């Protein structure tokens, strides 16, 4: 009997998500010095992102629905679980769970072609919507940007919600583009740094499922928490 590879992929996704401690710390030391790819990271990032706003889509859509009946996965039963992103977003779906920063989120999401529900999920996981949040590594603001990275993204004040969301969404857009729209791989890069993700041989969501153990535990938990939050914010 053959099994639809999409269903198998979903099963693997749900298996590793359930294996994580979903109550673990969600505060990420995202873009900390240890996660950056050298002292010229900010400059290189600025160059890489120079054309991000004109970058177009992020590959083919691969939206899979959860089929689990467990209570723990009920949020996923109410909607689809996007594993890859094709550069299209639905403002109506994200608006089903409004926040105080919706205007900034929608504007940045539209500018950089990122799902606003994913931006909300990252903010929720990174800072719980605290614009003054500072991590132990010095990451700041809603999307937890390090100073050097913020400068590379054109952010002069990480505690300014509009600037922070603009910069964080721009960086998320770059990662989605780098990993061909594979959301989990992009989230791994956001948390652990793309250099570390690349060295682990991770290039897409299938690689994340196969090589998750090569990533820090914090990153493993981070991916699962953002994906759960994404499902919540994406409900229509």
Protein model, in words:
It is globular, with a radius of gyration of 16 Å. By secondary structure, it is mostly helical. 50% of the residues lie in helices and 3% in strands. The longest helix is centred in the C-terminal third of the chain and has 18 residues, at 161-178. Residues 104-204 form the Transglycosylase SLT domain. Pfam families: SLT.
Topology, element by element:
Layout: H1 5-18, H2 41-48, E1 63-65, H3 74-77, E2 80-82, H4 91-94, H5 102-112, H6 116-127, H7 147-152, H8 161-178, H9 183-192, H10 194-199, H11 205-211, H12 217-233
Antiparallel strand pairs: 1-2
Helix pairs in contact: 5-8, 6-12, 8-9, 9-12
Protein name: Lytic transglycosylase domain-containing protein
InterPro entries: Lysozyme-like_dom_sf, Transglyc_AS, Transglycosylase_SLT_dom_1
Pfam family, one: SLT
Count of helical stretches: 12
Strand order of the largest sheet: 1-2
Low-confidence stretches: 1-41, 51-82, 84-96
Helix content range: 40-55%
Overall SS class: mainly alpha
**What portion of the residues fall into strands of 2 or more residues?**
under 5%
Task: Supply the CATH architecture.
Answer: Orthogonal Bundle
Which value, in Å, is the CA radius of gyration?
Answer: 16 Å
Question: What is the H-and-E element order?
Answer: HHEHEHHHHHHHHH
Shape: globular
Main β-sheet, in a few words? Answer: 2 strands, antiparallel
- When the domains are counted, the total is 1
**Arithmetic mean of pLDDT:** 73
């Amino acid at each position: 009997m053959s099994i639809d590879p999409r269903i198998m992929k979903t099963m693997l996704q749900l298996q590793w998500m359930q294996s994580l401690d979903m109550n673990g710390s969600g505060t990420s030391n995202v873009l900390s010095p240890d996660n950056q790819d050298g002292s010229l990271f900010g400059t290189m990032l600025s160059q890489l992102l120079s054309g991000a706003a004109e970058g177009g889509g992020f590959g083919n859509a691969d939206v899979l629905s959860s089929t689990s009946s467990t209570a723990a996965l009920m949020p996923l039963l109410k909607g689809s679980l996007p594993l890859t992103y094709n550069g299209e977003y639905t403002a109506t779906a994200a608006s089903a769970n409004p926040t105080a920063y919706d205007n900034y989120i929608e504007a940045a999401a539209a500018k950089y072609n990122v799902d606003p529900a994913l931006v909300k999920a990252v903010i929720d996981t990174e800072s719980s919507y605290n614009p003054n949040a500072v991590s132990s590594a010095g990451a700041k603001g809603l999307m937890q940007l390090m100073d050097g990275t913020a400068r590379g993204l054109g952010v002069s004040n990480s505690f300014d919600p509009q600037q922070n969301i603009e910069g964080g969404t721009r960086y998320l857009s770059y990662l989605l583009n780098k990993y061909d729209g594979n959301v989990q791989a992009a989230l791994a890069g956001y948390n652990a740094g793309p250099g570390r993700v690349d060295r682990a041989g991770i290039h897409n969501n299938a690689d994340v499922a196969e090589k998750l153990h090569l990533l820090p535990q914090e990153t493993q938990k981070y991916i699962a928490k953002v994906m759960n939050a994404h499902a919540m914010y994406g409900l229509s």
